[in-house]
Known about the structure:
By secondary structure, chain A is α+β, with helices and mostly antiparallel strands. Chain A is built from seven helices and four strands, in the order βαβαββααααα.
Amino acid sequence: MTDDLILHEYSQSGNCYKIRLTAALLGAPLERREYDITKGETRTPQFLATVNPNGRIPVLQIGDRFIPESNAACFYLADGSGLVPHDRFDRADMLRWMFFEQYNHEPNVATLRFWLAFLGEERLDEMQRALMPAKRAAGEAALQLMDEHLAGRSHLVGNRLSLADVALYAYTHVAEEGGFELSRYPAVGRWLELVAGQPGYLPMSA
Amino acid sequence: MTDDLILHEYSQSGNCYKIRLTAALLGAPLERREYDITKGETRTPQFLATVNPNGRIPVLQIGDRFIPESNAACFYLADGSGLVPHDRFDRADMLRWMFFEQYNHEPNVATLRFWLAFLGEERLDEMQRALMPAKRAAGEAALQLMDEHLAGRSHLVGNRLSLADVALYAYTHVAEEGGFELSRYPAVGRWLELVAGQPGYLPMSA
């Protein structure tokens, strides 16, 4: 018997989409519960007490237990499947790209998308405006590093799809909403098409 | 036959210490190569071309292959050992704390330590000074979240030591160098003593 899976999410978040895409690629059914992060719905006393004390989405609920952190939730879903490499080095290398995603990519590529496409530049405070150039440069560096790695390679790790591809696809494929020019990263562009062509692929808007 | 393990590191970095501590707890021998990050030694063309195109330490070298990202390197070392839980939920929950460490804890707790204890407050630029209050608040929130989780629990995941404990121990146990008051987090204090009492424990200065 399998526990029911519930995704607590804000559907436009790439971090939430990662989990939906992982579940879709695996054919795992997922119930969805939507929270509006722009209205503080993940900071209510009830959410903090029952879903995630860190006040963030996504959270994957498995029966009556909860896994916060998008990449940990993807790992739970894919553990034992072909999306997690069987080879020990490749498995660690997959995690290397997933930690890179949360440390070097998401805080820059996703944050600029949220600021520019969701909050709106005119509503940013002084600190956010001051941070924009550094986030732009760091986001471009992350995309450039991916592009150099993917030149001559089909996938981020080994020669088949893994959670590294899923995790980095989520915010990369909508990076233009944050003002990044994907045409500057041709190997990334080819890789985005490859991920989008996978059997079971689910678009972000689905 | 096992490949030789070489840690490319800056020994005062908690991210590098995590890997040394993991290896020590497992009894795995590790050769060490030191780079001075304050002198740009991880941004040289040779380092970028051979060790890590991201220009960062730590990097774990396994034979002639490289794993950047501290928590991925710890996972490589501990994969298949008791430091990675056998239970599927607990394994994902361990990764949850390791992603929390890199997203919510390290950019605040470790960055303030680096700025205050290594660079020196008088050498910070205007942007760094402006960011200090937000990093202070976010670092305190991360420590508070750990403290509430550890109240009544011995370890972060399940009831035995895992990489979640190792990863979060590294910068938490030196958080006072970044101006955090650990006496405000009594459950964290008990947990730090428990980690330091493990067989095979290695101090940061070793």
